[in-house]
C-alpha cells in the first residue's frame, strides 16, 4: 500500500536519488547532499514545531510503499515563499486600449515583475517515480499536501500557489526564455535556472526587466507558451485544476510556465474535507446494513484520500475505498495511517462526481 | 531668380496645384483647399502678431520670380505641443548587470515623451519634382534658418525636425508592424493622417503606456529605431550641416529620428551677417566665373515680405552686391540691410 508521510533524515539516500533524477533541478530538492540534508532537517523541525503562523518552515513529504519500504516520490510545501528575499513572478495584466472615435477596443496583456506572491505558501518539489502506473499515486502525493494544509491551516497563508514547468521544445529550449530572459541574461536557461534559487535571488532584481513586457510584441512562439505547462507537468497541472487552483494571473519569469493560485478555503481538499471516526472493517457490514436502503450510492464505494494528523507532526495520508459515511478501514490501512479504532481521520473523495455536490456547494 | 518668400493669401490656388504633385506619404501637405487656406491664414495671423502662442506657424513658398511658378513649400512651427501633446519616443538606456553572474546587458527602452514640447519645428518641406535637379532644395530648407536668424526673438530656445523613418519596399514600416499596429489597430496612413490633423486623442487612448524594450522586438523593427528613410537622407544631411543632431527621440509610428539643437547653435544663426546692399556685379566676378566662385544665401530683413535667394559672391568691404534684377526680386534697394550667409563650397544649395 502506498502512503504519504513526512520525510526523515533516514530517507536521505533515497531522496538524493530522486533529487539527482529530477529534471530540471527542483530548488526545494537540491541534489547536493549537504543542502538536501539541511532541507530535510528543516522539514523535521517544521513538522514538530508549534507554528502559529507561516514562517521559515519547510515541509517535505515522501511517498512510501508499505510493502517494500521503498520511497517512490516526494513533494513539499514552503510555508512562506521568498521568506528572506522577494519571490518573483510575472503578473499577467490585461490593459484595455480602446478609442471610441476609432471604434477600436483591444485587450493587451502585459507582464509585470511582481513580488505579490512573496510570503505566500507554495507547493513545490514534486517528484514521482516515472515507472509508477496510473495517476492515483500522483494524486495522492500531490494532494496529500492539501490534506496537511486542511488540518494545519494556521501554518499556511490563506492563498497558496504552485509554479509548474513551462513549455520547452525537443531540444529543451524554452521559446519564452529565448524571447525574453536571454535578451537580459545573455545565457542559457539551464545556467540561470540552477543559480536562481527558486526565483528568489538578488540577481533577478538586477537583471530581469523592470518595466512591463507587452505580450503582443513578443514573437509568436513565445506568446503561445505563455502559461502553458510542460508535457511533463501536465498531470500535476490537472491535479491542481481538480483541486480548484486558478491559472492566468501569473506566469513564471523564466519559461512563462503556469503559476497556479488558490484560496485555501476554496480548494477541494479543504472544502470537501470531513472528519470521520475510524472503524474496523468488521463493523462495516453492520453499518451498511443499518444504512439499508437509505444509502444513496447503492454499493457506497468511492476512493477517498484519508489522512491522519497525529501528535508531534506525525502525518499520514492514503487512498482508501470508503462508503458515503463512516471510515471503515482494514488493518493494513489502519497501520499505514497509524490509527486505531475510534480515532478520527480526515477524508476527501478523490474524484467527486458532479452529481454529488458537497453541502457547502449547495448552500 | 528663385526666391523663398512668406506665403500670401493669393497663393492658395498654386498651392493646391503643387500639393497634387505629392504622392502618398507627405500627410501635412495635401491638395485640400480648405486646409491650405487655413494654413495660409494662420501664417498671416502669425506675421501680424494676431496668433496665440500655440497656433503660431510660418509658411513659405518657393517662387520663380520670372515665371511666377510656385515650386515648393516649407514651414516652421513656433512651438509644438502647446495645444495637443507632441508625442515622441525617447530612447533611453537601461543596464541590467549582476556581479554575481558576471552579466552586463545594455538595453534600449522606448518611453513615450513630451520632451520636445515648446520646441520650434521645421516641417512641411516639399519641392516639386520639376525642380529637384536644379539645386534649390538647400535654398528651400535653409531659407527657414535665415528667417529664424533674422527674427530670433520670435522663436524659443530649441528647434527640432522629424525625419521620415524606414519603410520596406512594399511601403510598410517594420516598426509599425512590430509595435504600432498592435496598439492603434488602424493602418499606418490612417494613424498618421489623424495625428497630423490635430486629432491626437486616440494616441493617449491607445499608445503603449509603459516603456517598450527595443531588444525584445523583431530584429527588423529594432533596426528601424532612429533610421532615416533613404529618400530623406539628403534632408537629414543638410540639417546636420546646419547643426541639428539625433538626440534619441524618434517618431512614435515609424521610429524615424528627430533631429534637434539649440537655435543659438544653428550655423545660419551663428554665421550669417547683416550688411548694407550695393547694386553691382559680384566682387569676385573679375577673377572667376560666378558659377565657380563663392555663393551666398541672401535675404531681406522684412517680416511680412521676407524673401531669400541664392546669389554669387560674398560679403566684401562690409557690403554685399546684388544685380538690380536680384535686388528687385528680393525687394531690397541699395543701402538697405541684407542678411548674408556665405555657402561653403559644394554645400548648401544642392
Strand and helix layout:
The complex is a heterodimer of chains A (363) and B (350).
Chain A: E1 2-6, H1 12-21, H2 33-48, E2 58-65, E3 71-78, E4 89-99, E5 104-114, E6 121-128, H3 136-151, E7 159-163, H4 175-185, H5 189-195, H6 202-207, E8 213-214, H7 220-224, H8 234-243, E9 246-251, E10 258-263, H9 268-271, E11 274-280, H10 281-291, E12 302-309, E13 315-322, E14 327-329, H11 331-337, E15 344-349, H12 359-362
Parallel strand pairs in A: 6-7, 11-14
Antiparallel strand pairs in A: 1-2, 1-13, 2-3, 3-6, 4-5, 4-9, 5-8, 7-10, 9-10, 11-15, 12-13, 12-15
Helix pairs in contact in A: 3-8
Chain B: E1 2-6, H1 12-19, H2 33-47, E2 57-64, E3 69-77, E4 88-98, E5 103-113, E6 120-127, H3 137-150, E7 158-162, H4 174-184, H5 188-196, H6 201-206, E8 212-213, H7 219-224, H8 233-242, E9 245-250, E10 257-262, H9 267-271, E11 273-279, E12 295-299, E13 307-312, E14 320-322, H10 324-329, E15 337-342
Parallel strand pairs in B: 6-7, 11-14
Antiparallel strand pairs in B: 1-2, 1-13, 2-3, 3-6, 4-5, 4-9, 5-8, 7-10, 9-10, 11-15, 12-13, 12-15
Helix pairs in contact in B: 1-2
Largest sheet of chain A: 15 strands, mixed
- Major beta sheet, strand line-up of chain A: 8-5-4-9-10-7-6-3-2-1-13-12-15-11-14
Assembly annotation = heterodimer
Task: Give the number of DSSP strands of chain A.
Answer: 15
End-to-end distance of chain B, in Å?
A: 16 Å
Strand content of chain A: 25-35%
> Helix- and strand-based class of chain A?
alpha+beta
Q: Which structural class is indicated by helix and strand composition of chain B? A: alpha+beta
Rg of chain A, alpha carbons: 22 Å
Give, in spatial order, the strands making up the sheet with the most strands of chain B. 8-5-4-9-10-7-6-3-2-1-13-12-15-11-14
Number of structural units classed as domains of chain A = 3
Beta-strand content bin of chain B:
25-35%
Strands of chain B, total number: 15
Amino acid at each position: 500500500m502506498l502512503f504519504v508521510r513526512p520525510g526523515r533524515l533516514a530517507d536521505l539516500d533515497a531522496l538524493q536519488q530522486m533529487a539527482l533524477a529530477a529534471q530540471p533541478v527542483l530548488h526545494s530538492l537540491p541534489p547536493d547532499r549537504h543542502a538536501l540534508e539541511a532541507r530535510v532537517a528543516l522539514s523535521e523541525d517544521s513538522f514538530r514545531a508549534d507554528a502559529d503562523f507561516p514562517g521559515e518552515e519547510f515541509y517535505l513529504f515522501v511517498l512510501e510503499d508499505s510493502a517494500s519500504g521503498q520511497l517512490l516520490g516526494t513533494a513539499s510545501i514552503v510555508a512562506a515563499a521568498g521568506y528572506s528575499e522577494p519571490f518573483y513572478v510575472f503578473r499577467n495584466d490585461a490593459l484595455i486600449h480602446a478609442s471610441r472615435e476609432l471604434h477600436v477596443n483591444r485587450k493587451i496583456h502585459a507582464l509585470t515583475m511582481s513580488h505579490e506572491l512573496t510570503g505566500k505558501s507554495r507547493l513545490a518539489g514534486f517528484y514521482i517515480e516515472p515507472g509508477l502506473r496510473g495517476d492515483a499515486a500522483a494524486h495522492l502525493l500531490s494532494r496529500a499536501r492539501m490534506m496537511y494544509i486542511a488540518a494545519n491551516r494556521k501554518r499556511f497563508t490563506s492563498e497558496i500557489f504552485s509554479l509548474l514547468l513551462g513549455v520547452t521544445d525537443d531540444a529543451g529550449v524554452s521559446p519564452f526564455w529565448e524571447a525574453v530572459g536571454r535578451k537580459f541574461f545573455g545565457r542559457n536557461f539551464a545556467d540561470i535556472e540552477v543559480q536562481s534559487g527558486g526565483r528568489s535571488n538578488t540577481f533577478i532584481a538586477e537583471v530581469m526587466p523592470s518595466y512591463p513586457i507587452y505580450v503582443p510584441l513578443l514573437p509568436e512562439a513565445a506568446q503561445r507558451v505563455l502559461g502553458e505547462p510542460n508535457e511533463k507537468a501536465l498531470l500535476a497541472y490537472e491535479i491542481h485544476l481538480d483541486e480548484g487552483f486558478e491559472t492566468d494571473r501569473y506566469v513564471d519569469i523564466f519559461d512563462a510556465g503556469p503559476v497556479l493560485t488558490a484560496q485555501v478555503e476554496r480548494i477541494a481538499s479543504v472544502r470537501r474535507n470531513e472528519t470521520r471516526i475510524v472503524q474496523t472493517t468488521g463493523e462495516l457490514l453492520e453499518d451498511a446494513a443499518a444504512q439499508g436502503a437509505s444509502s444513496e450510492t447503492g454499493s457506497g464505494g468511492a476512493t477517498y484520500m484519508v489522512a491522519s494528523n497525529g501528535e508531534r507532526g506525525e502525518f499520514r495520508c492514503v487512498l482508501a475505498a470508503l462508503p458515503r459515511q463512516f471510515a471503515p478501514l482494514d488493518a493494513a490501512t489502519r497501520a499505514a495511517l497509524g490509527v486505531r479504532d475510534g480515532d478520527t481521520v480526515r477524508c476527501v473523495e478523490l474524484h467527486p462526481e458532479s452529481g454529488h455536490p458537497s453541502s457547502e456547494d449547495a448552500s | 531668380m528663385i526666391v523663398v518668400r512668406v506665403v500670401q493669401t493669393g497663393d492658395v490656388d498654386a498651392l493646391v496645384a503643387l500639393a497634387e504633385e505629392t504622392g502618398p506619404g507627405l500627410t501635412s501637405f495635401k491638395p485640400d483647399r480648405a486646409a491650405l487656406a487655413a494654413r495660409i491664414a494662420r501664417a498671416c495671423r502669425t506675421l501680424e502678431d494676431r496668433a496665440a502662442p500655440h497656433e503660431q506657424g510660418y509658411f513659405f513658398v518657393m517662387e520663380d520670380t520670372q515665371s511666377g511658378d510656385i515650386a515648393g513649400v516649407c514651414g516652421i512651427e513656433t512651438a509644438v505641443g502647446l495645444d495637443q501633446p507632441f508625442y515622441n519616443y525617447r530612447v533611453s538606456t537601461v543596464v541590467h548587470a549582476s556581479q554575481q553572474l558576471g552579466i552586463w546587458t545594455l538595453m534600449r527602452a522606448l518611453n513615450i515623451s513630451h520632451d520636445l514640447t515648446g520646441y520650434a519645428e521645421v516641417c512641411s518641406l516639399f519641392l516639386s519634382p520639376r525642380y529637384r535637379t536644379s539645386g534649390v532644395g538647400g535654398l528651400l530648407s535653409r531659407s527657414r534658418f535665415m528667417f529664424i536668424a533674422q527674427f530670433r526673438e520670435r522663436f524659443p530656445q530649441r528647434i527640432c525636425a522629424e525625419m521620415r523613418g524606414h519603410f520596406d519596399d512594399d511601403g510598410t514600416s517594420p516598426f509599425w508592424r512590430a509595435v504600432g499596429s498592435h496598439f492603434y489597430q488602424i493602418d499606418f496612413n490612417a494613424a498618421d493622417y489623424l495625428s497630423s490633423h490635430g486629432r491626437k486623442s486616440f494616441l493617449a487612448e491607445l499608445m503603449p503606456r509603459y516603456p517598450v524594450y527595443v531588444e525584445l522586438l523583431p530584429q527588423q523593427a529594432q533596426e528601424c529605431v532612429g533610421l532615416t528613410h533613404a529618400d530623406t537622407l539628403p534632408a537629414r544631411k543638410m540639417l546636420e550641416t546646419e547643426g541639428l543632431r539625433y538626440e534619441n527621440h524618434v517618431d512614435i509610428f515609424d521610429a524615424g529620428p528627430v533631429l534637434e539643437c539649440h537655435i543659438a547653435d544653428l550655423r545660419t544663426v551663428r554665421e550669417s551677417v547683416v550688411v548694407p546692399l550695393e547694386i553691382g556685379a559680384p566682387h569676385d566676378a573679375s577673377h572667376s566665373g560666378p558659377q565657380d566662385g563663392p555663393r551666398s544665401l541672401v535675404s531681406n530683413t522684412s517680416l511680412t515680405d521676407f524673401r531669400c535667394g541664392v546669389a554669387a559672391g560674398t560679403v566684401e568691404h562690409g557690403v554685399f552686391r546684388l544685380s538690380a534684377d536680384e535686388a528687385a526680386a528680393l525687394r531690397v534697394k541699395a543701402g538697405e540691410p541684407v542678411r548674408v550667409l556665405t555657402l561653403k563650397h559644394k554645400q548648401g544649395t544642392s
